[in-house]
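User: I'm putting together notes for a lab meeting next week and I want to include a structural view of one of the chains we've been expressing. I don't have a solved structure, so I'd like a prediction I can at least talk through. The sequence is below, exactly as it appears in our construct file.
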Amino acid sequence: MVALITNGLQRMRVLRSYSYTPRWIVFLIDVGLCFFALGFSFLFWINFDFDGIQWVDVLKGTILIVGVRIISFLLGRTYSGIVRFTSTEDALRIFYVLSIGEVALVLGNCLYFLFLDHFFIPFGLLLTEYVFLTSMMIMSRMVIKHLFVQFVGAERGRKKVIICGSDEYGVMAKHAMDNSVDVAYSIIAFVDVNNRKAGKLLEGVRIYRMDALEGLLKRNKVDKVVIAKKVLSPDKKRDIVEICLAHDVAVLEVPRFESWINGELTMRHIRNIKIEDLLERSVIHVDETNLRKQLVNKVVLVTGAAGSIGSEIVRQLTHFKPSLIVLFDQAESPLYDIELELKEDFNYSDYKIEIGDIRDNERVEGIFQMYHPNIVYHAAAYKHVPMMEKHPLEGVKTNVFGTKHVADCAVKYGAERFVMISTDKAVNPTNVMGASKRIAEIYTQSLNKVSKTCFITTRFGNVLGSNGSVIPRFKKQIEAGGPVTVTHPDITRFFMTIPEACQLVLQAGALGNGGEIFVFDMGKSVRIVELARKMIKLSGFVVGKDIQIVFTGLRPGEKLYEEVLNVKETTLPTVHERIKIAKVREYNYGDVEKAITRLGLVLESRDNFKVVRQMKYIVPEFKSKNSIFESIDFQIEEETEEQREREMLSTVSSNSTSQEVRE
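Assistant: Thanks for the context. Below is the predicted structure for the 663-residue chain, given as structure tokens.
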């Protein structure tokens, strides 16, 4: 007896070890169902009265009907699906295959009647067999699927899930989770922003109002919440995620339909919510008509075209059909990547790739001589604050004199527009990078007054996912198991998505008449430590337990709070609600030219302190923070205007003398 029980348990383990039922078994079961459906239909048709039955004809009819069904199964491959994952698609396949077989039997029966003046198989029997067999084949698969979920799935531990959304995305998410191979899920509720659906059932699961979500999370030990709504505002999405994070519940999202494979949603597609999704805002409305009018059939030069901003500007420009886009950058590999993307993903060919450095005046002039661009988007720059604080000479060479080379060539070769991409760090700068961008702003603004080229500046804050930004760094730290490093518990930053920033750059470039500094509505500033906490939670970890947050102190030149406008500046509205014009001090081109010439001469000394001092003379609001250059501020404060002028001139003359000696 013990041996029999042991043997039975071993057989059960063997059966359960199969990842799915072999196809030949499914095929034999379907053939068995054919005989059963036909036999039951025959009994039903003769009303259990066997008198006068011609058994030879019954045998011939059975062979014909079952033969047609077997051929249909083989051609339609009804046995190939995994039974426990039966879906609507599998049920439809069974229906189509049996229907085609039924049509073949009916046509054969009609031909038999034409030649022999009587039917080989009664039509009533054919119809009854078709209905019974279709029902039995579909129902058998559904029963097996249900039993698997109830018993085998229960052994693996079922995860409780709430789905936000009860439209087609919500239904598809439920099907994907029902059919999950690795994990068993139990959908305990749908919630929806459409309150009219509340109280109804969807595939046996109750729909609740969206404001019931928090109560559901409190009453049930929910493992995951899946956002599966075709259209959901960023504000609503943020609210849902905030509620889930407060209850330590993981949040997933169904992506847009375009990313599904063959229009079918699986668990592989349902992804974790990314922090970028929580920081996005409502869709930007761009005046495409005006942009197209300005860009169509024009030659456009994009400097820094391989960078995060430059490459996205290139992508967006392709929609407006310029005659040529010239991509100029010194970064070889990223430039090759964007070239492949234009070819393969955009199927775009109206572009030229040019490798070079904006600090090389001859190379820049060669580009302008070759292409004579109508519009220039100047995105090339050094942007990393601590790096430029360590290497101020390189920051000045690129951000100031590189910009000067490109701007001067734009004037010389008659470019219509020059759009400079600046930063909020140029406002009351506390670091070399911000000050160098402010000097570049001042130069291009002053140049606007003495040239036909329309010079426009755009300012915005941090962009999500850009090279060197905080979010990719946090992701790497989380993947490595922590700790996540934050410079200060109170530090805040403004954020935009890269596409959002570039849309506004293009729009501002179209709006400008020349000389403006456009500032973008960056929304609310974000505490970086809260950003880190949310990213850790969204990754499924517990802050302080799984992953620690460590404060490392402010880096050289770093501010606690970024500003969008100088305190002395005001803004004017534009036709676009997200773009404002900053009213800033105007500069005389001759004075600016002299100041930058002095800066260039000081640069030859290769003395960091002398160069930074000269930058502070040009930008008086430049006050260093957490930097070795703070001492210069104390010295300048004690200088009189006369001493300051003498200091600048002595620096210039000493450099001129040293240059003459070298010659």
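A couple of points you could mention at the meeting. Residues 17-148 form one domain. The chain has four domains: 17-148, 157-273, 288-583, 592-662.

User: Perfect, that's what I needed.
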